[in-house]
């Protein structure tokens, strides 16, 4: 049972409802991306909520006020009840989004998702060429399948949203990545430079691009964006810079336990997708109502408000904008989740970010040397 005592001054009286529900339906996945944000020890969490347990979670979250529901994983397509879950979510009035690698998607499934009322599908790619894509995905068929399914998503009338996680091994292909997206008639393209959580953090030295690589990619994206806008082209390019090249932290999750609620495959409720690694007790939907979890549990209140903050955040005039940054990043880099996110140049730990940038300037081993996300490796990590 989680500790439900709260050390924070923010109370349920001042806290608004969750708006965004992320349902991590499963940790199972046919791919092995070395930058996956799932926990390193995912192999030890075998149980998954049943169909009726998920629908109960959706119902409770909707009653609290949640309006957007993302289905993610792992690969959510491996859940055989996905159509049923989509239909239930749609009946409850959610705007639904499937976040998928496209592996396991078929024309028939796509039609079933449409009939069930799915609003939005995002397909992720690893690279713009088959060889690098498949090497990163750990699958020889991945690229071909993704191309076919991206086209099928478009043909089914969905807005096509493509996601490329970029890093030092594919970021120099940015021009080809954008050209591929235009050839696929993408409506939105997220060029998201890898953020370092889970497996990506484990592989950070081998993934972080150099400053020159990042600057080049951003310049190319800006050039394409200007060109597309001038032509009145419908495709929108979104470029996400990695935290490691910022001087101020992001307001992660728009504030801890503020609008975002994530449920892991086994029913653990988290204020963000990475919080499972923190030395904080988080409640399970199998033991508590979502209302209790959201408003009253220790885990969700742990970093709400400002009273938990040590210096330099406590007296910082930017704290209401960035909330001290990301708690998970603070924990991963300092061992203390209440520290200022070291991304911030005011943090006494900012030198760790500078050291990572310096490391990125050094030659790094090839893709094959990265640690790929799979059950076997996860089990070895669990045994520690
Ligand atoms: Fe957990 Fe930022 S990812 S607080």
Layout of secondary structure:
Layout: E1 20-24, H1 51-64, E2 68-72, H2 82-91, E3 95-100, H3 107-116, E4 120-125, H4 130-137, H5 142-155, E5 160-166, H6 174-183, E6 188-193, H7 198-202, H8 204-207, H9 211-231, E7 236-240, E8 260-263, E9 269-270, H10 290-296, H11 298-301, H12 319-322, H13 327-334, H14 350-360, H15 375-383
The structure holds FE2/S2 (inorganic) cluster (FES).
Function: Catalyzes the cross-linking of a glutamate residue and a tyrosine residue in the PqqA protein as part of the biosynthesis of pyrroloquinoline quinone (PQQ).
Keywords: 4Fe-4S, Iron, Iron-sulfur, Metal-binding, Oxidoreductase, PQQ biosynthesis, S-adenosyl-L-methionine
Domain Radical SAM core: 15-234
Report on this model:
With 384 residues, this protein is an alpha/beta fold. It has one domain (17-383): Aldolase class I (TIM Barrel, Alpha-Beta Barrel), CATH 3.20.20.70. The protein has 15 helices and 9 strands. The chain has helices spanning 51-64, 82-91, 107-116, 130-137, 142-155, 174-183, 198-202, 204-207, 211-231, 290-296, 298-301, 319-322, 327-334, 350-360, 375-383; strands at 20-24, 68-72, 95-100, 120-125, 160-166, 188-193, 236-240, 260-263, 269-270. A 9-stranded mixed β-sheet has the order 7-6-5-4-3-2-1-8-9, with helices on one face. Strand 3, helix 3 (107-116) and strand 4 (120-125) form a beta-alpha-beta unit. Helix 1 (51-64) runs parallel beside helix 2 (82-91) and helix 2 packs parallel to helix 3. The two termini are 25 Å apart. Residues 1-11 have low confidence and may be disordered. It binds FE2/S2 (inorganic) cluster (FES). FE2/S2 (inorganic) cluster is lined by residues 252-253, 272, 274-275, 326-328.
């Amino acid at each position: 049972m989680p500790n439900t005592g709260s050390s924070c001054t923010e109370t349920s009286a001042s806290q608004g409802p969750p708006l965004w529900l992320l349902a991590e339906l499963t940790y199972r996945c046919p791919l092995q991306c070395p930058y996956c944000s799932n926990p390193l020890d995912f192999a030890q969490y075998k149980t998954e909520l049943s169909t009726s347990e998920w629908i109960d979670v959706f119902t409770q979250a909707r009653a609290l006020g949640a309006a957007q529901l993302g289905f993610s994983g792992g690969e959510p397509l491996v859940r055989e009840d996905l159509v049923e879950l989509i239909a239930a979510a749609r009946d409850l009035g959610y705007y639904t989004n499937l976040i998928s690698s496209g592996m396991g998607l078929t024309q028939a499934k796509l039609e079933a998702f449409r009939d069930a009322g799915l609003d939005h599908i995002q397909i992720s790619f690893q690279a713009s060429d088959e060889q690098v894509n498949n090497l990163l995905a750990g699958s020889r068929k991945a690229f071909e399948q993704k191309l076919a399914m991206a086209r099928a998503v478009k043909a089914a009338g969905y807005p096509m949203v493509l996601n490329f996680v970029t890093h030092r091994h594919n970021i120099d292909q940015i021009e080809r990545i954008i050209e591929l997206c235009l050839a696929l008639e993408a409506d939105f393209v997220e060029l998201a430079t890898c953020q370092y959580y889970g497996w990506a953090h484990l592989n950070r030295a081998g993934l972080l691009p150099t400053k020159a690589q990042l600057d080049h990619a951003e310049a190319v994206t800006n050039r394409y964006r200007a060109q597309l806008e001038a032509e009145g082209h419908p495709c929108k390019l979104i470029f996400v810079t990695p935290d490691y090249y910022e001087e101020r932290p992001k307001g992660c999750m728009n504030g801890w336990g503020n609008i975002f609620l994530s449920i892991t495959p086994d029913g653990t409720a988290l204020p963000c997708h990475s919080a499972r690694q923190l030395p904080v007790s988080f409640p399970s939907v199998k033991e508590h109502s979502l209302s209790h979890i959201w408003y009253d549990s220790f885990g969700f209140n742990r970093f709400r408000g400002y009273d938990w903050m040590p210096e330099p955040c406590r007296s910082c005039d930017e704290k209401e904008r960035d909330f001290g940054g990301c708690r998970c990043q603070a924990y991963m880099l300092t061992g203390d989740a209440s520290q200022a996110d070291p991304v911030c140049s005011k943090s006494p730990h900012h030198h760790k970010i500078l050291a990572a940038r310096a490391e990125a300037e050094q030659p790094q081993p090839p893709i094959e040397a990265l640690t790929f996300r799979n059950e076997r490796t996860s089990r070895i990590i669990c045994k520690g």
